[in-house]
Specification:
The structure holds two protein chains of two kinds. Chain A is mostly helical. Chain A is 72% helix and 0% strand. The two termini of chain B are 25 Å apart. Classes of the chains: A mainly alpha, B mainly alpha. The interface between A and B is medium-sized, with 32 and 38 residues.
Chain lengths: 72, 495
Protein backbone atom coordinates (compact mmCIF):
# COMPACT_ATOMS: atom_id res chain seq x y z
CA UNK A 1 0.00 0.00 0.00
CA UNK A 2 2.53 2.47 -1.22
CA UNK A 3 -0.26 4.97 -1.88
CA UNK A 4 -0.86 5.28 1.84
CA UNK A 5 2.83 5.97 2.46
CA UNK A 6 2.77 8.72 -0.16
CA UNK A 7 -0.31 10.27 1.41
CA UNK A 8 1.34 10.24 4.82
CA UNK A 9 4.38 11.99 3.39
CA UNK A 10 2.17 14.75 2.04
CA UNK A 11 0.34 15.12 5.34
CA UNK A 12 3.61 15.38 7.26
CA UNK A 13 4.82 17.96 4.79
CA UNK A 14 1.70 20.05 5.35
CA UNK A 15 2.20 19.92 9.14
CA UNK A 16 5.90 20.69 8.90
CA UNK A 17 5.32 23.69 6.64
CA UNK A 18 2.51 24.93 8.88
CA UNK A 19 4.90 25.58 11.75
CA UNK A 20 7.40 27.17 9.38
CA UNK A 21 5.01 29.87 8.13
CA UNK A 22 4.14 31.65 11.36
CA UNK A 23 6.91 31.84 13.93
CA UNK A 24 6.13 30.59 17.41
CA UNK A 25 2.82 28.90 16.59
CA UNK A 26 1.29 26.40 14.20
CA UNK A 27 -0.95 27.59 11.41
CA UNK A 28 -4.30 25.76 11.83
CA UNK A 29 -5.21 25.79 8.12
CA UNK A 30 -2.71 23.03 7.36
CA UNK A 31 -4.33 20.81 10.00
CA UNK A 32 -7.68 21.23 8.30
CA UNK A 33 -6.09 20.15 5.01
CA UNK A 34 -4.43 17.19 6.68
CA UNK A 35 -7.57 15.90 8.36
CA UNK A 36 -9.54 16.18 5.11
CA UNK A 37 -6.82 14.51 3.08
CA UNK A 38 -6.64 11.61 5.57
CA UNK A 39 -10.36 11.13 4.96
CA UNK A 40 -9.92 11.17 1.19
CA UNK A 41 -6.99 8.77 1.48
CA UNK A 42 -9.18 6.39 3.44
CA UNK A 43 -11.77 6.40 0.62
CA UNK A 44 -9.16 5.64 -2.03
CA UNK A 45 -7.59 2.83 -0.04
CA UNK A 46 -11.00 1.27 0.65
CA UNK A 47 -11.82 1.32 -3.05
CA UNK A 48 -8.38 -0.06 -3.88
CA UNK A 49 -9.00 -2.99 -1.53
CA UNK A 50 -12.39 -3.69 -3.11
CA UNK A 51 -10.86 -3.79 -6.57
CA UNK A 52 -7.99 -5.94 -5.29
CA UNK A 53 -10.50 -8.46 -3.92
CA UNK A 54 -12.26 -8.61 -7.29
CA UNK A 55 -8.90 -9.01 -9.00
CA UNK A 56 -8.14 -11.94 -6.69
CA UNK A 57 -11.47 -13.55 -7.58
CA UNK A 58 -10.70 -13.28 -11.30
CA UNK A 59 -7.05 -14.23 -11.30
CA UNK A 60 -6.69 -16.35 -8.15
CA UNK A 61 -3.49 -14.52 -7.30
CA UNK A 62 -2.35 -11.05 -6.31
CA UNK A 63 0.89 -11.20 -8.28
CA UNK A 64 0.97 -8.08 -10.46
CA UNK A 65 2.92 -9.95 -13.11
CA UNK A 66 -0.25 -11.97 -13.73
CA UNK A 67 -2.38 -8.84 -14.19
CA UNK A 68 -1.00 -8.12 -17.61
CA UNK A 69 -3.53 -9.54 -19.98
CA UNK A 70 -4.41 -6.07 -21.32
CA UNK A 71 -0.91 -5.51 -22.62
CA UNK A 72 -0.86 -5.82 -26.37
CA UNK B 1 -24.04 26.44 0.79
CA UNK B 2 -22.13 26.82 -2.48
CA UNK B 3 -23.58 28.28 -5.68
CA UNK B 4 -27.15 27.31 -6.69
CA UNK B 5 -26.12 25.03 -9.54
CA UNK B 6 -23.58 23.08 -7.49
CA UNK B 7 -25.98 22.77 -4.57
CA UNK B 8 -28.72 21.54 -6.88
CA UNK B 9 -26.44 18.92 -8.45
CA UNK B 10 -25.17 17.61 -5.10
CA UNK B 11 -28.68 17.42 -3.65
CA UNK B 12 -30.06 15.70 -6.74
CA UNK B 13 -27.19 13.19 -6.70
CA UNK B 14 -27.87 12.32 -3.07
CA UNK B 15 -31.57 11.90 -3.88
CA UNK B 16 -30.98 9.37 -6.68
CA UNK B 17 -31.09 6.21 -4.48
CA UNK B 18 -34.54 7.32 -3.22
CA UNK B 19 -35.75 7.46 -6.81
CA UNK B 20 -34.14 4.07 -7.35
CA UNK B 21 -36.21 2.68 -4.47
CA UNK B 22 -39.37 4.19 -5.96
CA UNK B 23 -38.59 2.74 -9.38
CA UNK B 24 -37.97 -0.69 -7.87
CA UNK B 25 -41.22 -0.63 -5.91
CA UNK B 26 -43.23 0.50 -8.92
CA UNK B 27 -41.36 -1.96 -11.22
CA UNK B 28 -40.53 0.82 -13.71
CA UNK B 29 -36.80 0.92 -14.45
CA UNK B 30 -37.16 4.06 -16.56
CA UNK B 31 -38.04 6.27 -13.55
CA UNK B 32 -34.49 6.52 -12.29
CA UNK B 33 -33.08 7.26 -15.72
CA UNK B 34 -35.66 9.94 -16.43
CA UNK B 35 -34.88 11.44 -13.03
CA UNK B 36 -31.13 11.52 -13.68
CA UNK B 37 -31.66 13.17 -17.06
CA UNK B 38 -34.07 15.75 -15.71
CA UNK B 39 -31.61 16.54 -12.90
CA UNK B 40 -28.82 17.37 -15.36
CA UNK B 41 -31.13 19.36 -17.65
CA UNK B 42 -32.44 21.27 -14.61
CA UNK B 43 -28.87 22.18 -13.63
CA UNK B 44 -28.18 23.25 -17.23
CA UNK B 45 -31.22 25.57 -17.12
CA UNK B 46 -29.91 27.21 -13.94
CA UNK B 47 -26.88 28.55 -15.84
CA UNK B 48 -28.60 31.36 -17.80
CA UNK B 49 -30.86 32.02 -14.82
CA UNK B 50 -28.17 32.71 -12.26
CA UNK B 51 -25.04 33.49 -14.23
CA UNK B 52 -26.12 36.23 -16.64
CA UNK B 53 -23.50 38.57 -15.22
CA UNK B 54 -20.77 35.96 -15.40
CA UNK B 55 -21.37 35.46 -19.10
CA UNK B 56 -20.46 39.10 -19.68
CA UNK B 57 -17.23 38.89 -17.70
CA UNK B 58 -18.04 39.28 -13.99
CA UNK B 59 -16.70 36.95 -11.29
CA UNK B 60 -19.03 35.63 -8.60
CA UNK B 61 -17.42 34.86 -5.24
CA UNK B 62 -19.09 32.73 -2.58
CA UNK B 63 -17.30 32.30 0.72
CA UNK B 64 -18.08 29.60 3.23
CA UNK B 65 -16.67 29.88 6.73
CA UNK B 66 -13.97 32.46 7.29
CA UNK B 67 -12.91 35.15 4.81
CA UNK B 68 -10.95 34.27 1.61
CA UNK B 69 -7.35 33.45 2.46
CA UNK B 70 -8.53 30.84 4.99
CA UNK B 71 -12.05 29.62 4.24
CA UNK B 72 -13.61 27.59 1.46
CA UNK B 73 -14.27 29.83 -1.51
CA UNK B 74 -16.11 29.37 -4.78
CA UNK B 75 -15.17 31.72 -7.62
CA UNK B 76 -17.18 31.50 -10.84
CA UNK B 77 -16.05 33.25 -14.01
CA UNK B 78 -16.82 32.81 -17.72
CA UNK B 79 -14.16 30.10 -18.04
CA UNK B 80 -15.82 28.05 -15.26
CA UNK B 81 -19.23 28.47 -16.86
CA UNK B 82 -17.84 27.38 -20.24
CA UNK B 83 -16.41 24.15 -18.78
CA UNK B 84 -19.52 23.52 -16.65
CA UNK B 85 -21.84 23.85 -19.66
CA UNK B 86 -19.76 21.32 -21.61
CA UNK B 87 -19.86 18.88 -18.67
CA UNK B 88 -23.61 19.24 -18.28
CA UNK B 89 -24.42 18.90 -22.00
CA UNK B 90 -22.26 15.80 -22.43
CA UNK B 91 -23.51 14.47 -19.08
CA UNK B 92 -27.16 14.81 -20.18
CA UNK B 93 -26.53 13.10 -23.53
CA UNK B 94 -24.55 10.20 -22.07
CA UNK B 95 -27.11 9.61 -19.33
CA UNK B 96 -29.79 9.50 -22.04
CA UNK B 97 -27.92 6.72 -23.86
CA UNK B 98 -29.24 3.32 -22.74
CA UNK B 99 -26.67 1.13 -21.01
CA UNK B 100 -27.42 -2.19 -22.57
CA UNK B 101 -24.18 -3.59 -21.20
CA UNK B 102 -25.33 -3.43 -17.59
CA UNK B 103 -28.97 -4.31 -18.22
CA UNK B 104 -30.29 -6.20 -15.23
CA UNK B 105 -27.34 -5.02 -13.17
CA UNK B 106 -27.48 -2.31 -10.60
CA UNK B 107 -29.06 0.54 -12.58
CA UNK B 108 -29.59 2.85 -9.60
CA UNK B 109 -25.96 2.93 -8.53
CA UNK B 110 -24.90 3.49 -12.14
CA UNK B 111 -26.99 6.65 -12.43
CA UNK B 112 -25.98 7.82 -8.95
CA UNK B 113 -22.30 7.61 -9.86
CA UNK B 114 -22.91 9.26 -13.25
CA UNK B 115 -24.58 12.19 -11.48
CA UNK B 116 -21.80 12.25 -8.88
CA UNK B 117 -19.07 12.51 -11.52
CA UNK B 118 -20.96 15.31 -13.29
CA UNK B 119 -21.42 17.30 -10.09
CA UNK B 120 -17.79 16.73 -9.07
CA UNK B 121 -16.64 18.15 -12.41
CA UNK B 122 -18.80 21.23 -11.85
CA UNK B 123 -17.29 21.54 -8.38
CA UNK B 124 -13.77 21.42 -9.83
CA UNK B 125 -14.39 24.22 -12.28
CA UNK B 126 -16.18 26.39 -9.69
CA UNK B 127 -13.55 26.11 -6.94
CA UNK B 128 -11.82 29.29 -5.86
CA UNK B 129 -9.13 27.61 -3.79
CA UNK B 130 -6.92 24.69 -4.65
CA UNK B 131 -7.88 22.49 -1.72
CA UNK B 132 -11.60 22.63 -2.59
CA UNK B 133 -10.52 21.79 -6.12
CA UNK B 134 -8.58 18.80 -4.79
CA UNK B 135 -11.54 17.47 -2.81
CA UNK B 136 -13.84 17.62 -5.85
CA UNK B 137 -10.98 16.19 -7.94
CA UNK B 138 -10.83 13.13 -5.71
CA UNK B 139 -14.62 12.77 -5.79
CA UNK B 140 -14.41 12.73 -9.58
CA UNK B 141 -11.53 10.24 -9.60
CA UNK B 142 -13.20 7.84 -7.16
CA UNK B 143 -16.44 7.95 -9.20
CA UNK B 144 -14.54 7.23 -12.39
CA UNK B 145 -12.62 4.24 -10.93
CA UNK B 146 -15.97 2.79 -9.92
CA UNK B 147 -17.51 3.46 -13.33
CA UNK B 148 -14.59 1.78 -15.13
CA UNK B 149 -14.93 -1.28 -12.87
CA UNK B 150 -18.69 -1.28 -13.20
CA UNK B 151 -18.95 -4.59 -15.03
CA UNK B 152 -17.10 -6.29 -12.22
CA UNK B 153 -17.76 -9.78 -13.54
CA UNK B 154 -15.33 -9.19 -16.42
CA UNK B 155 -11.59 -9.44 -15.93
CA UNK B 156 -10.68 -6.60 -18.27
CA UNK B 157 -12.81 -4.07 -16.38
CA UNK B 158 -11.17 -5.04 -13.09
CA UNK B 159 -7.67 -4.97 -14.50
CA UNK B 160 -8.18 -1.63 -16.27
CA UNK B 161 -9.70 -0.10 -13.17
CA UNK B 162 -6.84 -1.40 -11.00
CA UNK B 163 -4.27 0.10 -13.31
CA UNK B 164 -6.19 3.34 -13.53
CA UNK B 165 -6.61 3.53 -9.75
CA UNK B 166 -2.92 3.03 -9.02
CA UNK B 167 -1.78 5.54 -11.66
CA UNK B 168 -4.39 8.17 -10.99
CA UNK B 169 -4.13 7.97 -7.19
CA UNK B 170 -0.36 8.41 -7.50
CA UNK B 171 -1.01 11.44 -9.71
CA UNK B 172 -3.41 12.89 -7.14
CA UNK B 173 -0.86 12.41 -4.38
CA UNK B 174 1.77 14.21 -6.48
CA UNK B 175 -0.75 17.00 -6.99
CA UNK B 176 -1.36 17.20 -3.24
CA UNK B 177 2.40 17.27 -2.67
CA UNK B 178 2.65 20.27 -5.00
CA UNK B 179 -0.18 21.93 -3.09
CA UNK B 180 1.70 21.43 0.18
CA UNK B 181 4.74 23.18 -1.32
CA UNK B 182 2.59 26.04 -2.55
CA UNK B 183 1.08 26.27 0.93
CA UNK B 184 4.57 26.37 2.41
CA UNK B 185 5.53 29.20 0.07
CA UNK B 186 2.47 31.38 0.49
CA UNK B 187 0.60 30.23 3.60
CA UNK B 188 -2.69 29.85 1.73
CA UNK B 189 -4.21 27.81 -1.10
CA UNK B 190 -6.63 30.44 -2.38
CA UNK B 191 -5.84 30.86 -6.08
CA UNK B 192 -6.08 34.67 -6.14
CA UNK B 193 -3.91 35.08 -3.03
CA UNK B 194 -1.37 32.59 -4.36
CA UNK B 195 -1.27 34.54 -7.59
CA UNK B 196 -0.43 37.83 -5.88
CA UNK B 197 2.02 36.47 -3.31
CA UNK B 198 3.96 34.22 -5.70
CA UNK B 199 4.24 36.80 -8.50
CA UNK B 200 7.72 37.84 -7.35
CA UNK B 201 9.09 34.46 -6.29
CA UNK B 202 10.41 33.44 -9.70
CA UNK B 203 13.88 32.65 -8.38
CA UNK B 204 12.75 30.22 -5.70
CA UNK B 205 13.69 26.61 -6.65
CA UNK B 206 10.69 25.22 -4.72
CA UNK B 207 8.45 27.03 -7.21
CA UNK B 208 9.93 25.03 -10.06
CA UNK B 209 9.51 21.76 -8.14
CA UNK B 210 5.88 22.59 -7.35
CA UNK B 211 5.32 23.54 -11.00
CA UNK B 212 6.75 20.26 -12.28
CA UNK B 213 4.65 18.27 -9.80
CA UNK B 214 1.50 20.14 -10.84
CA UNK B 215 2.23 19.43 -14.51
CA UNK B 216 2.62 15.72 -13.73
CA UNK B 217 -0.47 15.61 -11.50
CA UNK B 218 -2.82 17.35 -13.93
CA UNK B 219 -1.17 15.73 -16.95
CA UNK B 220 -1.79 12.25 -15.59
CA UNK B 221 -5.51 12.89 -15.47
CA UNK B 222 -5.48 14.62 -18.85
CA UNK B 223 -3.72 11.67 -20.55
CA UNK B 224 -0.48 13.51 -21.32
CA UNK B 225 2.08 11.36 -23.13
CA UNK B 226 4.39 9.55 -20.72
CA UNK B 227 1.46 9.09 -18.31
CA UNK B 228 -1.23 8.13 -20.83
CA UNK B 229 -1.13 4.34 -20.44
CA UNK B 230 -4.23 4.06 -18.24
CA UNK B 231 -6.42 5.86 -20.75
CA UNK B 232 -6.85 3.29 -23.57
CA UNK B 233 -7.43 0.43 -21.12
CA UNK B 234 -9.97 2.35 -19.08
CA UNK B 235 -11.85 3.55 -22.17
CA UNK B 236 -11.88 0.07 -23.64
CA UNK B 237 -13.14 -1.71 -20.53
CA UNK B 238 -15.79 0.81 -19.47
CA UNK B 239 -19.38 0.70 -20.82
CA UNK B 240 -19.74 2.97 -23.89
CA UNK B 241 -21.56 5.94 -22.29
CA UNK B 242 -18.91 5.91 -19.55
CA UNK B 243 -16.15 6.00 -22.18
CA UNK B 244 -17.97 8.95 -23.74
CA UNK B 245 -18.07 10.92 -20.49
CA UNK B 246 -14.46 9.97 -19.57
CA UNK B 247 -13.09 10.95 -22.94
CA UNK B 248 -15.44 13.85 -23.54
CA UNK B 249 -15.23 15.79 -20.31
CA UNK B 250 -13.25 14.06 -17.57
CA UNK B 251 -9.83 14.35 -19.22
CA UNK B 252 -10.68 18.01 -19.93
CA UNK B 253 -10.73 18.80 -16.20
CA UNK B 254 -6.98 18.17 -16.33
CA UNK B 255 -6.78 20.83 -19.06
CA UNK B 256 -8.86 23.13 -16.87
CA UNK B 257 -6.39 22.63 -14.04
CA UNK B 258 -3.47 23.41 -16.36
CA UNK B 259 -4.99 26.63 -17.66
CA UNK B 260 -6.16 27.84 -14.24
CA UNK B 261 -2.88 27.14 -12.45
CA UNK B 262 -0.46 28.13 -15.21
CA UNK B 263 -2.23 31.31 -16.27
CA UNK B 264 -3.03 32.61 -12.78
CA UNK B 265 -0.32 31.35 -10.44
CA UNK B 266 2.66 30.63 -12.67
CA UNK B 267 2.07 33.32 -15.30
CA UNK B 268 5.32 35.05 -14.31
CA UNK B 269 7.26 31.81 -14.96
CA UNK B 270 6.02 31.52 -18.58
CA UNK B 271 9.58 31.09 -19.82
CA UNK B 272 10.14 27.95 -17.76
CA UNK B 273 6.93 26.01 -18.45
CA UNK B 274 6.31 27.01 -22.04
CA UNK B 275 8.95 24.79 -23.67
CA UNK B 276 8.39 21.84 -21.30
CA UNK B 277 4.67 21.78 -21.94
CA UNK B 278 5.14 22.17 -25.71
CA UNK B 279 7.52 19.17 -25.70
CA UNK B 280 5.01 17.07 -23.76
CA UNK B 281 2.26 18.18 -26.17
CA UNK B 282 4.22 17.17 -29.28
CA UNK B 283 5.13 13.81 -27.73
CA UNK B 284 1.46 13.25 -26.82
CA UNK B 285 0.32 13.91 -30.40
CA UNK B 286 2.85 11.56 -31.98
CA UNK B 287 2.27 8.71 -29.51
CA UNK B 288 -1.50 8.99 -29.90
CA UNK B 289 -1.32 8.96 -33.70
CA UNK B 290 1.15 6.12 -34.10
CA UNK B 291 -0.53 3.88 -31.52
CA UNK B 292 -3.96 4.51 -33.09
CA UNK B 293 -2.66 3.14 -36.40
CA UNK B 294 -1.93 -0.23 -34.80
CA UNK B 295 -5.29 -0.87 -33.12
CA UNK B 296 -8.02 -3.25 -34.18
CA UNK B 297 -10.30 -2.57 -31.21
CA UNK B 298 -12.64 0.30 -32.17
CA UNK B 299 -12.83 1.81 -28.67
CA UNK B 300 -9.08 1.55 -28.13
CA UNK B 301 -8.51 3.33 -31.43
CA UNK B 302 -10.84 6.15 -30.39
CA UNK B 303 -9.06 6.37 -27.02
CA UNK B 304 -5.69 6.87 -28.73
CA UNK B 305 -7.30 9.53 -30.90
CA UNK B 306 -8.35 11.25 -27.65
CA UNK B 307 -4.69 11.30 -26.60
CA UNK B 308 -3.76 12.96 -29.91
CA UNK B 309 -6.38 15.65 -29.40
CA UNK B 310 -5.20 16.28 -25.84
CA UNK B 311 -1.84 16.95 -27.50
CA UNK B 312 -3.38 19.64 -29.75
CA UNK B 313 -5.11 21.26 -26.78
CA UNK B 314 -1.93 21.23 -24.68
CA UNK B 315 -0.02 22.78 -27.58
CA UNK B 316 -2.47 25.68 -27.58
CA UNK B 317 -2.11 26.05 -23.80
CA UNK B 318 1.69 25.97 -24.04
CA UNK B 319 1.72 28.83 -26.56
CA UNK B 320 -0.24 30.80 -23.98
CA UNK B 321 -1.38 33.75 -26.13
CA UNK B 322 -5.02 34.85 -26.11
CA UNK B 323 -5.83 33.36 -29.51
CA UNK B 324 -4.06 30.09 -28.71
CA UNK B 325 -5.95 29.57 -25.45
CA UNK B 326 -9.23 30.50 -27.19
CA UNK B 327 -8.43 27.89 -29.87
CA UNK B 328 -7.64 25.32 -27.20
CA UNK B 329 -10.90 25.96 -25.38
CA UNK B 330 -12.86 25.83 -28.65
CA UNK B 331 -11.13 22.52 -29.35
CA UNK B 332 -12.14 21.31 -25.86
CA UNK B 333 -15.78 21.97 -26.79
CA UNK B 334 -15.50 20.41 -30.25
CA UNK B 335 -13.62 17.37 -29.02
CA UNK B 336 -16.11 16.79 -26.18
CA UNK B 337 -19.04 16.78 -28.62
CA UNK B 338 -17.31 14.75 -31.33
CA UNK B 339 -15.66 12.12 -29.15
CA UNK B 340 -18.87 11.57 -27.18
CA UNK B 341 -20.62 11.08 -30.54
CA UNK B 342 -18.05 8.57 -31.81
CA UNK B 343 -18.02 6.56 -28.56
CA UNK B 344 -21.82 6.41 -28.51
CA UNK B 345 -21.87 5.24 -32.14
CA UNK B 346 -19.27 2.63 -31.24
CA UNK B 347 -21.52 1.65 -28.33
CA UNK B 348 -24.42 1.12 -30.74
CA UNK B 349 -22.21 -1.01 -33.04
CA UNK B 350 -21.04 -3.08 -30.09
CA UNK B 351 -24.63 -3.50 -28.85
CA UNK B 352 -25.75 -4.94 -32.21
CA UNK B 353 -22.55 -6.68 -33.25
CA UNK B 354 -21.43 -7.97 -29.83
CA UNK B 355 -17.78 -7.40 -30.74
CA UNK B 356 -15.29 -4.54 -30.57
CA UNK B 357 -13.04 -5.74 -33.36
CA UNK B 358 -12.94 -3.54 -36.46
CA UNK B 359 -12.31 -6.61 -38.66
CA UNK B 360 -15.52 -8.23 -37.49
CA UNK B 361 -17.52 -4.98 -37.66
CA UNK B 362 -16.53 -4.44 -41.31
CA UNK B 363 -19.28 -3.11 -43.58
CA UNK B 364 -21.70 -2.53 -40.72
CA UNK B 365 -22.99 0.69 -42.30
CA UNK B 366 -25.12 -1.33 -44.74
CA UNK B 367 -27.16 -2.91 -41.94
CA UNK B 368 -27.11 0.07 -39.56
CA UNK B 369 -27.52 2.95 -42.06
CA UNK B 370 -28.34 5.84 -39.67
CA UNK B 371 -25.71 5.11 -36.99
CA UNK B 372 -23.17 4.27 -39.68
CA UNK B 373 -23.75 7.51 -41.57
CA UNK B 374 -23.49 9.64 -38.43
CA UNK B 375 -20.32 7.74 -37.47
CA UNK B 376 -18.79 8.50 -40.87
CA UNK B 377 -19.73 12.19 -40.60
CA UNK B 378 -18.03 12.19 -37.20
CA UNK B 379 -14.92 10.53 -38.60
CA UNK B 380 -14.75 13.09 -41.41
CA UNK B 381 -14.95 15.81 -38.76
CA UNK B 382 -12.11 14.09 -36.89
CA UNK B 383 -9.90 14.42 -39.96
CA UNK B 384 -10.53 18.18 -39.78
CA UNK B 385 -12.23 18.79 -43.11
CA UNK B 386 -13.62 22.35 -43.52
CA UNK B 387 -17.40 22.22 -43.18
CA UNK B 388 -17.24 20.42 -39.81
CA UNK B 389 -16.33 21.55 -36.34
CA UNK B 390 -12.72 20.35 -35.85
CA UNK B 391 -11.46 22.43 -38.75
CA UNK B 392 -12.18 25.75 -37.03
CA UNK B 393 -10.47 25.00 -33.73
CA UNK B 394 -7.44 23.31 -35.32
CA UNK B 395 -7.11 26.31 -37.64
CA UNK B 396 -7.22 28.64 -34.64
CA UNK B 397 -4.42 26.78 -32.83
CA UNK B 398 -2.23 26.56 -35.95
CA UNK B 399 -2.62 30.24 -36.81
CA UNK B 400 -2.05 31.24 -33.16
CA UNK B 401 1.25 29.33 -33.19
CA UNK B 402 2.25 31.20 -36.35
CA UNK B 403 1.26 34.56 -34.84
CA UNK B 404 3.29 33.82 -31.69
CA UNK B 405 6.37 33.27 -33.85
CA UNK B 406 6.56 29.50 -33.33
CA UNK B 407 6.20 28.15 -36.89
CA UNK B 408 7.83 24.80 -36.06
CA UNK B 409 5.04 24.05 -33.56
CA UNK B 410 2.33 24.72 -36.13
CA UNK B 411 4.24 22.60 -38.65
CA UNK B 412 4.36 19.69 -36.17
CA UNK B 413 0.66 20.06 -35.54
CA UNK B 414 -0.17 20.06 -39.26
CA UNK B 415 1.94 16.90 -39.70
CA UNK B 416 -0.07 15.28 -36.92
CA UNK B 417 -3.41 16.32 -38.39
CA UNK B 418 -2.28 14.65 -41.64
CA UNK B 419 -1.24 11.52 -39.74
CA UNK B 420 -4.55 11.31 -37.93
CA UNK B 421 -6.39 11.28 -41.24
CA UNK B 422 -4.79 7.88 -41.91
CA UNK B 423 -6.60 6.06 -39.12
CA UNK B 424 -9.77 8.07 -39.78
CA UNK B 425 -9.77 6.87 -43.39
CA UNK B 426 -9.17 3.37 -42.12
CA UNK B 427 -12.26 3.68 -39.87
CA UNK B 428 -14.34 4.86 -42.85
CA UNK B 429 -13.02 2.08 -45.05
CA UNK B 430 -13.72 -0.55 -42.40
CA UNK B 431 -17.25 0.53 -41.56
CA UNK B 432 -18.49 1.58 -45.00
CA UNK B 433 -16.50 0.16 -47.86
CA UNK B 434 -15.51 -3.38 -46.90
CA UNK B 435 -17.66 -6.42 -47.66
CA UNK B 436 -19.94 -7.11 -44.67
CA UNK B 437 -18.92 -10.00 -42.42
CA UNK B 438 -21.44 -12.48 -41.04
CA UNK B 439 -21.63 -10.45 -37.81
CA UNK B 440 -22.42 -7.19 -39.53
CA UNK B 441 -24.94 -8.90 -41.85
CA UNK B 442 -26.90 -10.02 -38.80
CA UNK B 443 -26.88 -6.55 -37.18
CA UNK B 444 -30.02 -4.40 -37.13
CA UNK B 445 -30.43 -0.62 -36.84
CA UNK B 446 -29.94 0.63 -33.29
CA UNK B 447 -33.07 1.24 -31.14
CA UNK B 448 -34.62 4.72 -31.13
CA UNK B 449 -33.42 5.48 -27.60
CA UNK B 450 -29.83 5.01 -28.79
CA UNK B 451 -30.35 6.98 -31.99
CA UNK B 452 -31.68 10.09 -30.27
CA UNK B 453 -28.48 11.02 -28.35
CA UNK B 454 -26.37 10.09 -31.38
CA UNK B 455 -28.42 12.29 -33.72
CA UNK B 456 -28.42 15.19 -31.21
CA UNK B 457 -24.63 15.15 -31.00
CA UNK B 458 -24.31 14.70 -34.78
CA UNK B 459 -26.50 17.74 -35.37
CA UNK B 460 -24.49 19.75 -32.84
CA UNK B 461 -21.30 18.75 -34.66
CA UNK B 462 -22.61 19.92 -38.03
CA UNK B 463 -24.10 23.07 -36.46
CA UNK B 464 -20.78 24.10 -34.88
CA UNK B 465 -19.07 23.42 -38.18
CA UNK B 466 -21.53 25.35 -40.32
CA UNK B 467 -22.11 28.25 -37.94
CA UNK B 468 -19.13 28.48 -35.58
CA UNK B 469 -19.48 32.18 -34.65
CA UNK B 470 -21.48 32.00 -31.37
CA UNK B 471 -19.53 28.97 -30.08
CA UNK B 472 -16.23 30.57 -31.01
CA UNK B 473 -17.30 33.80 -29.29
CA UNK B 474 -18.15 31.83 -26.13
CA UNK B 475 -14.74 30.12 -26.20
CA UNK B 476 -13.03 33.48 -26.74
CA UNK B 477 -14.90 35.01 -23.79
CA UNK B 478 -13.80 32.03 -21.67
CA UNK B 479 -10.17 32.45 -22.78
CA UNK B 480 -10.34 36.14 -22.01
CA UNK B 481 -11.58 35.37 -18.50
CA UNK B 482 -8.88 32.70 -18.06
CA UNK B 483 -6.10 35.11 -19.02
CA UNK B 484 -7.49 38.14 -17.23
CA UNK B 485 -5.76 37.89 -13.84
CA UNK B 486 -6.70 41.39 -12.76
CA UNK B 487 -10.47 40.96 -12.72
CA UNK B 488 -10.22 37.58 -11.01
CA UNK B 489 -7.88 38.82 -8.28
CA UNK B 490 -9.88 42.00 -7.69
CA UNK B 491 -13.07 39.98 -7.29
CA UNK B 492 -11.51 37.80 -4.58
CA UNK B 493 -9.23 40.28 -2.79
CA UNK B 494 -11.05 43.48 -1.85
CA UNK B 495 -8.91 46.46 -2.90
Amino acid sequence: MALEVMLNAVNLNFIALSSYRVSGMVHPLAHVFTILSIGIGGCIIALAFVITIYAYRHYGTLDVRELRRLKH
Amino acid sequence: MFTPILDAMILLTVMTPVMGLISRKSKKVKVVKAYAMLAVIFALMLIPLYYDGVLTGDVILVVHGSSPPIGVSIAVDTFSIFMASISLIIGAVTIAFPVAEIEGGNITSYYTIMLAITSAMIGIVFSGDLFTLFIFWETMCISSYTLVAFRKERWEAIEASYKYLIMSATGSMILLFALSFLYGLAGTLNIAYLSTSLAEGVENPWMSIALLMLIVGFGLQAGMAPFHTWLPDAHMAAPSPVSAILSGVMVKTGIYGFIRVLMLIFASMYGSWHITLAAFAVLTMFIGNFMALLQDDIKRLLAFSTITNIGYILLGVSIGSYRAVAGSLFHVLNHAVLKALLFLCAGAFIYRGRTRSLMELAGIRRTMPITGTVFIIGTIALIGLPPLNFFWSELMIVTAALEAGLPYLSLLMIVNVMLSSVYCLRLIQATALKEPTSISKRAKEAPVMMLMPILTLGLLCVLIGAYPVPFQAFAEAAAKAALDQKTYIEAVIPP
